[in-house]
Amino acid sequence: MALALSSVLVLAACGGEEPADTGEDDTGTDEPQTEETEDEGDEGEGEAASGGDLTVGIEAEPTSMDPHNTTDGNSATIQSTMMEGLLRFNENMEIVPVLAEDYDYSDDATEITFYLREGVTFHDGTEFNAEAVKENIDFVRDTDNGMARSSFFSFVEEVIVEDDYTVTIVADEPNSAMASYMAHSSAAFKSVEELNKKLEDPDYNLDREGAVGTGPFQFVEWRDSEHVVVEKFDDYWNEEEAARVDAITFRPVQEASTRVNMLRTGEVDVITPIPTLNAAELENEEDLDLYTGSSTDLYYIGMNFQNENYDDLKVRQAMNHAVDKDGLIAQVLDGYGQVADSAIAPAVYGYAGQSVYEYDLELAQELMDEAGYEDGFEATLWTRNSTEFLSVAEYVAIQLAEIGIDVEVEAYESGTLFDMLDAGEGTDLWIGRWSPGTGEADYGLRPNFASDRVPPNFNNSGFYVNEELDVMFDDAISTPDEDEAMETYAEIQQVIYEDAPWVFLHIPDALIAKGTNVHGIYVLPSGAVHLNLAEIR
């Protein structure tokens, strides 16, 4: 029953191994290089300043302040300063307690019981207790409420309040990864008062006004395209981890080079992410720190199986062979990445590498000819409108043109693109980036490839259906035998990679930069930046 906990522990333990080519990172370590490492023994070098304001440059506008209605990393980074869950991941992807002091599984892994911390209040003064846990989970999993993360909690059959500070989550079937799910950023809680406002008034905007959590910072304002501001919450329950700065301002800056220049001039203190083109030069700048480390992000080209162009396996294989991933990493990522040899990254527990689709234009064209597409076809490739995504999309379009696939690239703001993919209408090809926040294989694979996860509002935007995989997913998550589960996840990855529902691209390095006067932050392999203990010295 310890699968969920052992899964994240292994992520740190396997750090000394050279990761296989999965597309996200070629650093050879799964253990993040955190800022704390630089600070060891530096007490005499600088005093910790109390207060001050921190400004963070992020790559896009957030989509929501509600963790139950969020699927993007920018929103999650902001929310994590205000919202907390029962558990969370630390910088080594280990599960640590937050609002729960402890938990245990039932013998058959169908139930997980949490023992809650007492004396915690939300920012509005209301009490955090077992009833608040139940109300939040019941609200998000109710599909009538339209939360983007409802499917994430679909494993929950019932939430039982045992007493004021003990709550049991009952799964609809054995689920040995429940602790990992509850450590995900979307499993954070907001005040029951906010839920009641929404239930009483369907027009109440939880995305804008519902950010009432238990975290060290509280919501101040969100001005579109300008900033989101949070400020220190003076009555935070955890004195040891109380906010060190007075406020954090998050500024969406779409153009990567602009973010870098703003860091150089001191307009922002931290930028995430950082373009690879600037990474090497920033490493040598005395006033700036560059972070590089393994991440769980994986870039891919998704394809809509409702489009007959992608019915034939040979076409999908041809597309995989037609894209030079090593060239992409060298030319677009400036070497900061590795080729994807699975549908999940090596930093994800349960990863199993496969034989890479080697770049072979001659073979790719032969496969297209055999599939009856000697002259290719026209395609539309959706992408986010950030520099990083556009560069990948344009590179892929040039490559696919070599086998007659005439690709038109269409760029959208990230929130708009997510809405289009969730709607499941008009989708052809798209550039995707996936990172399982649970740190384990089930959430790395099931949301994108299970038959019951197709749109609307689910991640299987390609409408990929494989009944063999559906059975294997259920077998893996329900077994109490960890070795058996890992064998099944390895088989799942082999089936997916060989069936090629994606063009598997790369895993980028996690890259952020900050001023040398900023301390106390770290980056998870998921790419989320933990800012709660940030301080300026």
Provide tags for this entry:
single chain; 537 residues; alpha+beta; Dipeptide-binding Protein, domain 3; 2 domains; 17 helices; 25 strands; 30% helix; 23% strand; globular; disordered N terminus; Peptide/Ni-bd; peptide transmembrane transporter activity
Order of strands, widest sheet: 10-11-12-1-13-21-14
How helical, in percent, are the residues? 25-40%
Classify the beta-strand content into a percent band: 15-25%
Sheet having the most strands:
7 strands, mixed
Radius of gyration: 23 Å
Per DSSP E runs of 2 or more residues, the count of β-strands stands at: 25
Architecture per CATH nomenclature, i.e. the level-2 architecture of the largest domain: 3-Layer(aba) Sandwich
The number of helical runs is 17
Structural class: alpha+beta
What is the end-to-end distance? 44 Å
Question: Care to give the gist of this entry?
Answer:
With 537 residues, this protein is α+β, with helices and mostly antiparallel strands. Helices cover 30% and strands 23% of the residues. The strands form 7 sheets. A 7-stranded mixed sheet has the order 10-11-12-1-13-21-14, covered by helices on one side. A 6-stranded mixed sheet has the order 16-20-15-19-17-18.
Overview of this structure, please?
By secondary structure, this protein is an alpha+beta fold. The chain folds into 2 domains: 53-269 and 517-536, D-Maltodextrin-Binding Protein, domain 2; 298-508, Dipeptide-binding Protein, Domain 3 (Dipeptide-binding Protein, domain 3, Roll), CATH 3.10.105. It has a 7-stranded mixed sheet, covered by helices on one side. A 6-stranded mixed sheet has the order 16-20-15-19-17-18. Strands 5-6-8-7 form a 4-stranded antiparallel sheet, covered by helices on one side. Strand 10 (217-223) and strand 11 form a beta hairpin. Helix 10 packs antiparallel against helix 12 and helix 15 (441-449) packs parallel to helix 17. One of its GO terms (biological process) is peptide transport.
